[in-house]
Amino acid sequence: MTIHGATTRHPALVSLSRELAQHPVNRNEFFQRFRAERLARPRLQRFIEQYQYFCKHFVKVLEGLLYRTPLDQLDMRVELTRTLYSELGNGNPEQAHLTLLNRFAARLDLDELALSRTEPVACVRDYLCQLHELFLESDYLTALGAELAVEVTAASEFQYLYPALQQYGWFGEEDLAFFKLHVEEELCHGDWLLDAVERTARSSADYKHVTAGARRTADAWHAFWLGLSDEVFTPTQTHLGEKR
């Protein structure tokens, strides 16, 4: 994973960027298996149900973080706004990230009504709860570190998911627009958040708060994917009869 712009940044931020790039979440068990194995359709549906639930609720938590950011932290607010505006399709509802993901889900016969009935499994629920606490209940520097970790570590996710889904033969490029978009866009989001930290953190104490939020979030994100790996790949009694 490339650390974009790291050589011109504060040494504490360079160190944190490298730490996030080397975190095991970037090559976790789910990613490895998703690349190596082809899921039966019900298993892929299971993954997308949970993943869509997370993506939908993450945007609301991000909105909450922007609301809670102090008014005088203008640089942080600007970069968070850029990220949120991107999530919402840069002003085009048809290109909002959730809209694109829902189109992909529809190719798996998961319409929006079906998706609205999804009950989150423990790993999804737990990660969203941790983000809610970090974004909405912690100090703004810890929250900023948490969002930095979200965006920096998300880049590797799509480097696995997009090429793996291309191999199924069920989807055209238009169906995979959500995943293709994020291969490049998450690098931009990561850079924006690095800029936000650079312009907001003023002291070594500030960077300690940022680092604490980033580490906790990266660990929680790792637990999210390990939990999904168990949900999607581990055979259960109800799934034993599935066919590829």
In short:
With 244 residues, the protein is mainly α. The protein has helices at residues 11-21, 29-36, 41-68, 74-87, 97-107, 112-116, 122-136, 140-166, 177-200, 204-233.
Kindly report the average pLDDT value. Answer: 91
* DSSP summary: helix tally: 10
Residues in helix, %: over 70%
Roughly what fraction of the amino acids lie in strands? Answer: under 5%
Estimated radius of gyration = 18 Å
What's the multimeric state?
Answer: single chain
Unreliable spans are: 1-7, 237-244
> What is the H-and-E element order?
HHHHHHHHHH
Helix and strand composition category: mainly alpha
| Shape designation | globular
Sheet of most strands: none
Strand segment count: 0
Ends apart, CA distance between termini: 33 Å
